[in-house]
Amino acid sequence: MSAWYERGIFYHIYPLGMTGAPKHNNAAEITNRFKELSLWIPHIKKLGCNALYIGPLFESTSHGYDTRDYKRTDRRLGDNESLKDFVKECHKEGIKVVVDGVFNHTGREFFAFRDLQEKQGSSAYKDWYKGVSFDWQSPLGDPFGYDAWQGHFELPCLNLSNPEVKEYLFDVIRFWAEEFHIDGIRLDCANVLDFTFMKEMRRVTEGIKQDFWLMGEVIHGDYSRWVNREMLHSVTNYELHKSLYSGFNDHNFFEIAHNVRRLEAIHQKLYTFVDNHDEDRIASKLTNKEHLFPVYLCLFTLPGIPSLYYGGEWGIEGRRTCTSDEALRPAISVTDEPRLHCPLTGLIEKLAHIHAKYPAYQNGRYQELLLTNRQYAFARQGEGPLMITAVNNDDREAHLSIPVPVFGRQAVNLMAEAEEASILPITDGKIHMKLKGNWGTILEIKGEN
Questions:
Q1: What torsion do the CA atoms of 245, 249, 253, 259 make, to the nearest 10 degrees?
Q2: How many CB atoms sit inside 10 A of residue 134's CB?
Q3: CA-based angle 92:93:98, to the nearest 5?
C-alpha cells in the first residue's frame, strides 16, 4: 500500500496569522489559541483534506521563523500540552500533521546565540553558527559578525556541519515525534540546507516513525537533487505554481504542459500549491477571476500532492508588500465560513473528494491528450478507471475532440452541471464535447455497461 503522504491532500495553516496572535512575543503569559484552531478540524475534514501542514509552532520572537526554543510551543498559541491535544484531535479525525522545521537559522534569543553574545570568543557555542568572526561587528551591534539568512541579521545561520548542532536538532526531531506525535516536517529553506545534514536526518527519521515525511522548501533548481531515496520525500513545486498562474494569464497551456513533462521523473512526489504564506494569493495573481476554478482543477488532477492554503477555498485575495507578508496571513475565524462560502468552496470540496476516490490522481501515469494555447486535456491512469481532465481558459465555449488512450464505451462527466449531459459517448476512440468558457471537467472512462 502507498504511503499516507502519496494519498495526501493538504490543508496549510499559518497559525500566528490565522488566529490573530500578537506580531511580537513580548508577553509572559501563555494564551491558548489551539482551542480556536481545533474548530477548523471539521471544516478541514469536510473539504476533503486528510493532512495538515501547520507552522511555525515553536517559541519565537516575531513571525515564527526566528526560533527561541525548539522544544516549547509558542506561548502566543499555547503550551506543549495544548499542541499535543490538537495533534491528537487531528489524528482522531484521520488528519496527519506536518510541522515547520526551521533548521537553517535561529532567532537572536536562542540560547546558543545568547551565550555567544555574552561570552564571545570563550563561548562553547561559537562554532554553532556559520561565519562567526571577531574581526567585524554585525549591523545589530554585536562585537562579532556572522552569516545571516539573506542578509537578515535577526536570523543567524546555524553551522549544520557541526556534529553538536546536528545532534541537537536530531534530538529536537525525536522530541517532536515522541511528545507531539507529528507525522512529518516541512524543512524551511531546504534549498540552502547542508546535503549531508539532510541525508543524516533522513536516516534518523526513518528510525523514529514509519512513513515519517520530509518535505523541503525549494524554489529553484533541479528538484531531483533533493527528492531521492537518500534525502527528502518531496519538495515544494514552485515551477508548477508559477506556470499555473502565468499559463492562465497568458492563455498559454503550453507552459503548464511543458513544466509537467519536464518534471515527469519526480512529479508524483512533489508538493503542489497555488498560493501559500509567502506568495500572493492566487485570486490576486489571476487576471481573470473566472480562472479560479480551472486553476484548482489543474492543482487537484495534475501529478503531485495538492495543498490548499487557508482561505483559498473562499477565493480571498492578498498581496505582499516590500516590507510585510501580513496580507497573505490574515486572521480568519472558521465561524465566518457561512459568510465566506462561495461557489468555489463547493467545487474545491468536490475536487478533493474526487482526488481521494480515484487512485489514478494519487499515483497514476500522466499522459497529454490535447494541447492548444487555450485548451488542454490529459489522462491519469493507474489502479481503477482511466481519468481525463479537460480545461478551457478561453472566454468562449470550445468544441473538443479528446482521444481516449484505452478502450472505453463512454465517459462520465463528474463535474456536469444541470444543463449538461453527464454521460458522453466515445466514438472512434474520441470524446466529442463542448466545454464552456473558463471552465473544466473530469471524465471517468467506462468500458462495457
A1: -30
A2: 12
A3: 85
The per-residue pLDDT for 242 is 97
Q: Specify the amino acid at residue 23.
A: K
First to last CA, the chain: 29
**Residue 299 near residue 272 (C-beta atoms within 8 A):** yes
Place of cell 495526501: 8
Return d(Cα 220, Cα 237) in angstroms, integer.
9
Rg (CA), the chain: 23
pLDDT at 163 over 80: yes
Closest CA to 106 of 125, 133, 86: 125
Buried/exposed 109-127: b ≥16 CB within 10 Å, e otherwise? bbebbebbbeeeeebebbe
pTM: 0.97
Domains and CATH numbers, the chain: 4-104+160-357 (3.20.20.80), 364-446 (2.60.40.1180)
Cα–Cα distance, 367 to 378 (Å, whole number): 6
Amino acid at 208: I
Mean pLDDT for all residues in the chain: 96
**Model confidence pLDDT, tens digit, residues 419-447:** 666 899 999 999 999 999 999 999 999 97
384 close to 359: Cβ distance less than 8 angstroms: yes
pLDDT given at position 418: 65
